[in-house]
Amino acid sequence: METGKSVKVYLFVATLPYSQYSYVEPCRYMKMDSFIRAHVHTYQYFGGVAHASSVTT
User: Fold this and answer.
1) What are the phi and psi torsion angles at 44 (to 5°)?
2) Cα gap 18→22, rounded to integer Å
3) Nearby residues of 49 by Cβ (< 8 Å), 6 or more positions away
4) Integer Cα distance of 34 and 18 in angstroms
5) Engineered SS bond to 14: which of 28, 40, 42, 44, CB 3.0-4.6 Å?
6) Contact 46, 56 (CB under 8 A)
7) Residues 11/30/35/10 CA torsion (nearest 10 deg)
8) Of the candidates 11, 8, 4, which has an alpha carbon nearest to the alpha carbon of residue 38?
Protein backbone atom coordinates (compact mmCIF):
# COMPACT_ATOMS: atom_id res chain seq x y z
CA MET A 1 0.00 0.00 0.00
CA GLU A 2 1.43 3.37 -0.98
CA THR A 3 0.92 6.19 1.50
CA GLY A 4 3.50 8.71 0.28
CA LYS A 5 5.27 8.49 3.66
CA SER A 6 9.07 8.46 3.64
CA VAL A 7 10.82 5.53 5.29
CA LYS A 8 14.45 4.99 6.21
CA VAL A 9 16.24 2.34 4.16
CA TYR A 10 19.75 0.95 4.05
CA LEU A 11 21.43 0.42 0.70
CA PHE A 12 23.11 -2.87 -0.07
CA VAL A 13 25.75 -2.23 -2.76
CA ALA A 14 27.75 -4.90 -4.60
CA THR A 15 30.36 -3.87 -7.16
CA LEU A 16 32.37 -6.09 -9.46
CA PRO A 17 35.99 -4.98 -9.06
CA TYR A 18 37.21 -5.13 -12.66
CA SER A 19 34.20 -3.80 -14.57
CA GLN A 20 32.87 -1.59 -11.76
CA TYR A 21 29.34 -2.83 -12.55
CA SER A 22 27.18 -2.33 -9.49
CA TYR A 23 23.99 -3.69 -8.02
CA VAL A 24 22.10 -1.64 -5.42
CA GLU A 25 19.12 -2.80 -3.38
CA PRO A 26 17.28 -0.87 -0.66
CA CYS A 27 16.64 -2.81 2.56
CA ARG A 28 14.33 -1.80 5.36
CA TYR A 29 16.37 -3.58 8.02
CA MET A 30 20.01 -4.59 8.51
CA LYS A 31 19.27 -8.18 9.44
CA MET A 32 20.81 -11.42 8.23
CA ASP A 33 17.82 -12.39 6.09
CA SER A 34 17.95 -9.04 4.28
CA PHE A 35 21.70 -9.48 3.76
CA ILE A 36 21.30 -12.98 2.31
CA ARG A 37 18.32 -11.98 0.14
CA ALA A 38 20.30 -9.05 -1.29
CA HIS A 39 23.19 -11.40 -2.13
CA VAL A 40 20.83 -13.83 -3.88
CA HIS A 41 19.34 -10.96 -5.90
CA THR A 42 22.87 -9.77 -6.73
CA TYR A 43 23.85 -13.19 -8.13
CA GLN A 44 20.61 -13.31 -10.13
CA TYR A 45 21.23 -9.81 -11.49
CA PHE A 46 24.79 -10.59 -12.58
CA GLY A 47 23.83 -14.03 -13.91
CA GLY A 48 25.68 -16.18 -11.37
CA VAL A 49 29.01 -16.15 -9.65
CA ALA A 50 32.43 -15.42 -11.11
CA HIS A 51 34.36 -18.38 -12.48
CA ALA A 52 37.70 -18.93 -10.77
CA SER A 53 40.46 -20.02 -13.08
CA SER A 54 43.76 -21.45 -12.01
CA VAL A 55 46.98 -20.27 -13.54
CA THR A 56 49.90 -22.64 -13.63
CA THR A 57 53.47 -21.56 -14.26
Assistant:
1) -65, -40
2) 11
3) 43
4) 26
5) 42
6) no
7) -10
8) 11
